[in-house]
Amino acid sequence: MVLNRKVLSAIASLPILLVATACAPEPEAGGDGTPPAGQPVSGGGQKVAISGAGASFPAPLFQRWFDAYNRQVDPNVQVSYQSIGSGAGLEQYIKDTVDFGASEAPITDSADRLKSFKDTHDYDPIQVPMTGGFISFSYNLPGIDDQQLKLSRTTYCGIVMGKITKWSDPAIAADNPDLTIPDLPVTFAHRSDGSGTTFVFTNHIQTVCPDWTAGAGTSVDWPVGVGGQGNEGVAAAIQQNEGAIGYLSYAYAALNDIDSALIQNKAGTFIAPSPEAAGKALLDEPVPDDFALLVPDPSGPDSYPIVGLAWVMIYRDYEDDAKWQAMRKVFEWSLGAEGKKVAEELLYVPIPDALVERIKKEFDTVNAK
User: Fold this and answer.
1) Helix (H) or strand (E) holding 21
2) DSSP structure string for 291-338
3) I need a labelling partner for 172 at 20 to 30 A (CA). Which of 9, 42, 198, 362 fits?
4) What is the pTM assigned to this prediction?
């Protein structure tokens, strides 16, 4: 996979294990125990611990954001984030065991989860997008380098549904007349846990594959393939099996140096995964009042076809005002200029300024005591 030096440097600075807490060591204090000069403190120097859980898709970005905020902005604010999958994160959010949840599937898309939340909390949830991203078809094919493989819509539908089982299949050869592809079995790798990445992926597959019967959701009954826990598990399954192909948040494909295909969009163009192409697919669309924007098959000629947002879910009522104010500052910093730089370095799609202003107004509706 060919990445520029800036991206490689940013990715290399990530911890290997993204399931760990996203907090940095506290900077050395002065002789009186105060933080170093120039470092703002929160709440009169009181430490604030914030917990979140959910989607693995934005975990590399969250890790960098929360670490940078702790190091560069306020050493007294520590945010821990568990990369446990969107489904599990939404369940923890509903049960009020975290300060925020995160998902690539809006909670409003699930009638059962929305009802569970309203039954527990007696109000509607707040979901706001923090970043956009895109999902790659990533593969392990000896002799085929990054972005050499092309997959038409008919071909990748056939792979996902188990109709194409060998890399020597005529459909793959027709897409790639100039490549010599090894004659290996096709092993399709998918998520085994409840996953927002799966929601975005299957929402697209359901839209473009006429014979797809498994539906769209955070978890589906896959007709074929091997499962992995989290984006991390799918990445490992691809790396460990020659002939494997699966769907990944592109940030994970880049992080693990896994090759990714050019895939055909609605306009018929073969598009490489990139933040620019994903941004064209996402950011030209009108965002509804509840922020639950879904774009299962963007129509632009230069749009990457498998895209989605990652939302954080927060509560309308917090018992601890200091915690809410600290959390709000973390999110607003992440959505601001410094946070956008990090998002771009890690190959995510930053939220545009006009939408950030809407998000800030939504934050104003939170009640804290």
Assistant:
1) none
2) -----SS---TT--SSEEEEEEEE-SEES-HHHHHHHHHHHHHHHSHH
3) 198
4) 0.82
